[in-house]
Amino acid sequence: MLVDLLFTCFAVFSVLGALGLIIFRHPMNGAMSFLVTLVSLAGLYALLSAKLLFALQLIVYAGAIMSLVVFVIMFLNIQPDQLPAEKTKVTYLVAGGVAVTPVAFFLLKVINRLPNMPVSFADEGFGGVKEVGLIFFREWLVPFEIVSILLLTALVGAVVLAGKREKNK
Amino acid sequence: MFAHLLSVMIFLPIVAGLILLFAPLSRTTARIVGFGVSLAVLVLSIDVYAGFTATGKLEFVEYIPWIPSLGIAYHLGIDGISLFILMASAVLLPMVYVLFGTREKGYYANLLLVEGAMIGAVCAADLVLFYVFWEVMLLPVFFMLGLYGGPRKIPATLKITLYTIAGSLLMLAALAYLAVQYHALTGEWSFSIEKMGLLDLSGHAAALALFGFMIAFAIKIPLFPFHTWLPDAYTEAPTATTFVLSAIMAKIGVYGVIRVVMPAFEMEFARYALFFAYAGVIGMMYCGLTAIAQKDYKRLLAFSSASHMGIIAVGVFSMNVQALTGTIYQIVAHATSTGVLFLFAGILEERTRTRSINDLGGIASQAPIFALFFAIAMLASVGLPGTSGFIGEFLIILGALKFNVAIGVLTGLSLIIGVCYMLWLFQRVFFEKSKTASERFKDLSPVESLAFVPVILLILVMGIYPHPFLRKIEPSTAQYFAAATPVVAQATTVTPALAADLTTEKN
Amino acid sequence: MTNDFMLLFPVILVSLGAIGLMLAATSRCVQIEQAAWACGGLFGFAFLVQLAATLTGDQALYSSLFNDILVVSPFSKAASLVILGCGLFTVCSSLSYFKKNNFSSTEYYSLLLFAASGMLLLTMTRELISTFIALEIMSLAIYILVGYDRDNVLSTEAVMKYLILGAFAGAFLTMGSAFVYGAAGSTKFALIGNFVATTGFLSNPAILAGSFFILVAFLFKAAAFPFHAWVLDVYDGASMPITGFMATALKTAIFAVFANFLLADSGLQQGWVTFLFYIAILSMFMGNFIAIGQNSLKRMLAASGIVHSGYLLIGLVALGSQPVPGSVVAFYLAAYAAGTLGIFSALSYLSGKGEQWKNFDDFKGLAKTKPYTAFAISIFLLSMAGIPPTAGFMGKLYIILAAIQTGQITLAVLGIVSSIVAMWYYLRLIVTMYFHAPERSFAEECPSRIGTVSTLVLVLCVFAISLYPIAL
Amino acid sequence: MIHDYLVLSVILFCLGVVGVFARRNFFTVFMSVELMLNASNLAFIAFARLQQNMDGHVLALLIMAVAAAEAALALAVVILLHKQTGKLDTNVFSLLKG
Amino acid sequence: MEHSTFYLGMIPLYPLLGAVCIGLFHVLTCKRWQVPPLVYGLLACVGPAMSFFLALRVFFELRALPLDARFFTYKAFTWFSVGDLHLDMGFLADPLSGLMLLFVTFIGTLIHVYSIGYMSGDKSYAKFFAYMNLFLGSMLILVLGDSPVVMFVGWEGVGLCSYLLISYYSEDRDNVLAGNKAFIVNRIGDLGFVLGMGFLFWAIGSHGFDFLSLKANAHMMTESSILIVCLLLFVGATGKSAQIPLYVWLPDAMAGPTPVSALIHAATMVTAGVYMVARFSFLYVEVAAAGMIVAWIGILTALLAAIFGMFQDDIKKVLAYSTVSQLGYMFAGVGVTAYSAGIFHVFTHAFFKALLFLGAGAVIYVLHHEQNIWKMGGLKKKMPITYCTMLIGALALAGCPPFAGFFSKDEILYSALANGHFFIWLIGVLVAAMTAYYTFRMIFVVFHGQPRDQQAYDHAHEAPLVMTVPLIILAIGALFAGFYNLPAIFGGEQMISHWLAPSVADQHPHDSFLLEFFVIATSVAAFAFGLWVAYKRFGKGAEEPVFTGFARFAYHKFYVDELYDAVFVRPYKAIGAEISEGVEPNMTDAPVTGIARLYMRVGTLVKVLQSGYVRVYAIYMVLGLGIMSFILSQSLN
To answer: What residue segments make up the domains of chain E, in order of their start?
Structure first.
């Protein structure tokens, strides 16, 4: 019962947050409402017994990534007149909603065919740091290593694109 | 003489052409090299001709696996049909170097390339190899036409290139279909043209494949109604290109029909033969009628060439040994007559600076040798007995009559239609009074005359004593009908009533 | 395990090289030229190693590595050869390109290597998330390379478009992976394949939806219709060598992983045949129609890339019939890569500072002033158009053979029709170069020998691939 | 019920799609993509629960890492864009067309 | 009999070699020095003369052979052999060809000699003789050919020479047009010939396609197929021999030099059609209908041409129409299966018509190429030899006994009546009267009365010896040729009929003295009547008449040329122009250009879709995704 209530709560907040993201004009407002979604999602992870992910969602996503985003928004010091006017935003939103309906319909139909199960708290070991970590470093070592290359690339990229570059020649 | 005679004949001009293309040589050197190489090819081809024993099978075979996993091979060989197209190109091309002396280096280089590619196409015994040469021979034409053509060269170039490539790509699909079918039948991959004869395809897909090949060849020949690229291209192209296109390249389309399509699609071919024969006949009449209305002599000759190709097509689709043999013979005859006429047209254009018939007149009195040679070529082209044109045309009409009376009779109309426009042309250009453009027309120089003499003699010899030539052709053509299945045999006499009617014993 | 590392040698080499160059970039003593040579050397060395491994190594169809996450097969080897070759020639063309344009730095070559390592991984992955990560490595590196010229608004615009749409497509890949995972309980191709094989493709809507989204992401990267729109703008905004690299190596990597994914189970491939059939047709024709209207050479080549993706999709449709799975696709990719790289290699040294020559009309009369370059470009164009005896022709022949053998005659015929249509815009450039009088002087000498040499080598490649087709 | 989570994931995903579809602000578009990634993460975790299999958690983790890398790059591009034009409107950048 | 037949091949070869020699010699020398024309003239006469002697040898060798094996052949080489078609370049000497050979070479030689005089002063003298020799060679191939195809070689060869010689004065467009007309009309006939050969081959040709084998196998054909073959071959004959409906070229052909008109368009080539029908007599006798059609066409042509002939004012045109008319007689003869009579008429006609033409040529020559008879008159005194010889010719043509024409014409008329073709005979008699009329109209107007053009008259003189000698020789021929086939009624032996018997399938009517006498009487009466009318009107000199009514209609040749022009020539050209300007660009080429244009249009339209807005690209993706999802969800159910 409590689980259902919590789920409803988180679900409503996450959807509202997402709606806010796509509706608010100023990206700062959008980022804030997106934060709501992210936090709600963390809650949902918890409900799904994903303890490690719950923590990481809060720390990495809501914490690190979003603060970076917010920082950049602040850093750019965006004035309202710098923002796109977007007078036809509502039209586009509605049109987008219509366009995406078949996709959503299709996915929902697919979900309907999947086996269902009630969500209850799983056994002790499920989703814990140790268990996930064991799987991670035993079976998923290669992706882990590859991700390191990815992060390096992003690092170089950020430097190249936004950093200072000395003129050659 | 050599082990790989055919390879040498193919690659000698190609390599020489590429060297010419890149080496910084003068025009004169290029011309001499071109002439020398084409003469060398001619000598080799005579060797081939002498060594050809007319067994009805492939001779001078060379076989080197190329892509073994798909059975594609560098496979060469010639039979009586290839031999004559080969000879035609080897004999005719040296003339061009003699006649047109002040062209750019690339002109001669491209001529050599096209010669090699054409020889390759007729020698290829592997479908992929055939296709490769088939496409390659278009490229030099593309460049010659675009670089050295007349004022409206670019549209003409694009039209011929896109048109022919469109056709040949359809052929690519069709030949892939053949190979796949062969694989399905025997479990091994092969693109050998000979082996395709084992196939006996029928059904919708086979009909589609047949049409794939046929459209490619019909465009190249060109068969009505795929001829519309021809007038522009023939008119705008430099003389040598027109010559190559009309004299030899068009024939390779016919050759393709005979070598590739007929054996592989016996049933479907027999089913559609009448249809194609009508296309040939209609094309003959259509182009012949159009020719009479032309005011540009090159265009007139272009339509005349297309008209003759219609007759040749009828010969192919009549599916009996007379018609087919006649076709091969007519191929050579047409190469020597219409091809040479285009050379004359080139000389005319060069010396009078006009392509309009109305600007010319009275050349016969200015230039008797020119007029004489032109007349002989023209008469061969209208099929006068005693010239090479008659034998082929007669055999084709004979064969067409057996195939279908209506086709035969309509083919016969070519006797009249051809004469109408040719005489008109001859009258306006060579007879009547001289006009300003033709007033100071210079006759052929001795060297030029000498260049034409072999061909003119060939026209006459082929008309008077064709037997030695036909003897080399006939075994190969007869072979197509020797193994014909009953279905084909039945289909070949579409008018059995007539045949029966003609031969029934009178009581 | 050592064997595993041997098989991974090229990836490791390239990645270490990337990191090394990245570190070197921090010190001032490394000149850009030196970095370029090092980078090129790395590519070349890796290429040779891989070539040796391909020719001499065991011909087992699959060698699964690392818990079945990576795989080395003849197909992946062939694809990685193509990618390494592309890298090598991209370095060459970059060298000549940056003689005239000076916005390069050492990191440029590092990023090239990063991108290449992502691509190499992509050819090998047999697991969805690794695929995603490898895809992102590649994409991120390419984004940066596209936007490398920071002073150029066009280049920034290109990276912006590419980034947004690429990330958008990437999200589909993750969502698709999630659904596949939800159905099969794993993201490894082998297990997915087993699952599909035991339960059937159509009885698993989640597999259907998941693989659909995954396909969408792949199709986006391959620029197939209707996910093609970005490709023109991005190619247009990127610098010449990078455009060439994207057009070839990226496509190779994507089609490699695409084929690997579809090969997970024949039921899966069969299930998508109809879908790919229509996508292939639409891509070919849409690409052609877009290409026909272009005046800019780069945009035309981009649009023709859409068409070639269509052909490659035919190859994917006909995967089942190939003696070595994917061999036809690999061959086509190699042939296409040789031609495209060649053009970009030539354009790199031809186009001058700030890429002034980009429209068809700029190339009028090139054959008069630079006959050899014009000749080379013509050869490349003919190869792309599929005229024998170039490599492109053989690629097309194989694709059509494969299509007919699988019974896809309609597809084969439409492919042919599309290449007829395509002739026009390839010929157009040749016509412009050869048959028009020069309107501007092409007096500038090409700045480096390396550009011409690599172009020449590529011309030879175009013929060599066709006449000596070892890939099959 | 686990389906509810999945449905929520689909809804969030679709909202992300709508965001990319409808908005011109670079930040918003970018965050919409992030929203889509989050939706797929939710799906992964829900499926992990359904499959009783912790691979899904690992995968979600990896996706987070990728999202972080992408974010870094995207922000670099934003800065670049802002530097060049002072605008965040994606429609401003339409020099390449046709 | 063991003897070499090699010389048979030499008969056509001599003139051909002559042509080649003259041609080459001319071509090689024409640029550098002037060769005296006489050289060419003499060179040209050698070939025909040699052929004539060989022809004599053939004749005598044939005579030495027994009646049932009176032929021999010479096969020079295998011409071509394809499948079951086997053809030799073979020559056949039998009584029919032997007879033709004799007079063709004889008259040919004479005309060559005559030409030396007539053509003197012409600038392309050599060309003329080369053509003439070429013609004679072709004609001899035609005569000697042992299979229809070899015959066709000669058949087309003579057509070519006819074309070349008609357009000999090529600066004048009308002459060239006349040449074109001749060639094209002949080609129409040749089409019939070729198709006839085709049908014949597929019927019985596989057993051998030479005349002897065909004759032996003719019984294997059905009647209907024989009819088809006969009619098609006859189409060829109407072309070559100027019969309805293809006669129109012959009057125009008079544009050529007069010796040409004499040799080609009167004596030899135009009779080739008759010869061919006689050659194929083994087919024609099998089907009565074929013969009937031939006979009727022939006699109607004779009538029509005679009507035209009565109103012509060009001396050569008169003779031309008389030729057409006489050819009509010949066809009537062979049509009623009196082959020997037809050939006999060919034989006699060759003499007197060549004579008339050469005589007319002499007149034209001395009057400096004046051809209108209304500008002549009273030349009798100035040109006595010409007058006398022409008078003989005219009498022969008009059918005055005992001149040559009388016997042959009478033979034909008698055969027609005796074989039951009353109306053919009746028309024949009518035409005979008309012939006498127009022949003597010409004689009277040209030679009698007062000179109409005094100046020309004053300059007139007798033609040179080289021209008059052939005239005299021919006049002797015209006088006596008829006696070769003197019918029994005059105590003759019908030598020619007997001679020809092995070659042609004559159906001899029962000899009926009364009937024959009746026929002769009517013929003579018709001649006398025609002569009388002509004398009445023109004997004392007459002015150029003004034609009205029917005469005017006939003067304009019933407007047949204009009709053909309107019905065939103009539509043909119009169709050509229409195809060239209308159909080709708008229909045949339209799909091609249309597709190209459409394609470009789509290209520019599609460009609009590449709007450059990144959001729009995303929208494409979403829309595509939506559609695909929709389709996929349908498949889920």
So the answer is: 287-545, 599-637
